[in-house]
Amino acid sequence: MTGWITRHPAALREEDRASLKDVLTRCPELDTAAGHVRDFGEMLTGRLGATLPTWIEAVDASQLPGLTGFALHLRRDLDAVTAGLTLDWSSGSIEGAVNRIKKIKRQLYGRAGFHLLRKMILLQ
C-alpha cells in the first residue's frame, strides 16, 4: 500500500491506480499526506531546495502528525537541508571509504595492532 502512495500515479497499473484513488477519496488526510510525500520526492530528484520553505509551510498547515514532526526537524537546520537538496556536491564517496575502514577495523579488533590495520587498509 505504501508503495502505491509514494509512486507517481502514472507509474501504477490501471487496477492499482483505481484502488489508490478509491482509498485516497475515502481518507482525505491520507490524500494530503500522499501529495506532500510526492512533492518532497520531486524536490529530492529535481534538486529543488529553494521550494523547501514553501513545502514546510504547507505541511505545517495540514497538521499531519508524522509529517509536521519531520518538517520541524528539517526547519532546525534549514540551510544545510536546502544546500543538500540544491547542490550537486556529495560526501558519499568519503562516507563509503570511512565505512570500509571501520569494517576492516572491526574485523581486526583484538587480533592485531595498528601496523597490520594500516597494511589491510592500504591493500584493500
Automatic annotation (TrEMBL):
Domain Transposase IS204/IS1001/IS1096/IS1165 DDE: 5-121
InterPro entries on file: Transpos_ISL3, Transposase_DDE
Name of this protein: Transposase
Native species: Streptomyces mutomycini
